[in-house]
Design a protein that fits this description.
The structure holds 2 protein chains of 2 kinds. Chain A has 4 helices and no strands. By secondary structure, chain A is mostly helical. Chain A has one domain. Chain B has 2 domains: 87 residues, RNA polymerase sigma factor, region 2, helix turn helix motif (Rna Polymerase Sigma Factor, Chain: A, Orthogonal Bundle), CATH 1.10.1740.10; 96 residues, Orthogonal Bundle (Arc Repressor Mutant, subunit A), CATH 1.10.10. Chain B is built from 10 helices and no strands. Classes of the chains: A mainly alpha, B mainly alpha. Chains A and B meet through helix 1, helix 3 and helix 4 of A and helix 2, helix 3, helix 5, helix 7 and helix 8 of B.
Chain lengths: 80, 201
Amino acid sequence: MTHVVCASGVELLMDYIEGELPADVSAELAAHVAGCARCAAFVASYQATPRILRDATTVTLPADIEASLQAFLRARLDTH
Amino acid sequence: MAVPAAESSDETLATRAAAGDTSAFEAIVHRYQARVFRLACRLTSDTDAPDVLQETFLQVYRHLPSFRGESQFGTWLYRIATNAALMHRRAAARRPVESLDAFLPRFDADGTHAATPAELQVVARVDELLDRETLAEKARTVIARLPDAYRDAFVLRDLEEMPTAQVAQVLGIEAAAVRQRVHRARLMLRGYLSDLVGVKP
């Protein structure tokens, strides 16, 4: 079994979170993170990244663009 | 009496729209337009998103008769929207690729994180440390800087929150490749967010 250090743990992180690692590797990684304050902090920030960017890029559909879409489709659908 | 279009399932609406029921098609548009617009903004830009939105629903309308229900209707529609966005991006001028490798995590010679726990942790609080407008602007910019393959996988998997298997289906790549690309994107973006608040990743 390979010895997990921070660097190798980071490489396995996505597969670990998605449950794609063999059980023994997964257990070893979990044990490393449990005993490593740096990795625990890194995992928290790694998992926060998608959430922060998702919230920051959530847009609503502006009314004028919705109206343009309707006009565009009406014109196309009428001719078919 | 017919079930009101707004309450019908996607599949029912698709069948009715394919048979020429305009109100069923309008209900599909109404149900998905905001999500398609958001996806288009994330995969292209605010400027290009309205065109992608129009193109998507035109393609959906044209291809409805060939929807066979082999995948969920939403997956099928997302695939059309993603393709419309990617086609649009391909047609636009090539943007210069800027490397984000500088934002990857740093390790000491023995493989230990070079940053301290407090430094590594700061990313989780970026949305408290920056104002909303600034963060939104920076987020749009950095996502557009990702290499295309990473951007597409990250947008679908992490921003649109599609299951990995579905992203693989939409992009026509293996699930393992999706995970690898999303992982690289997360590492780069994580480091970028850290840098934004003045902490070396």
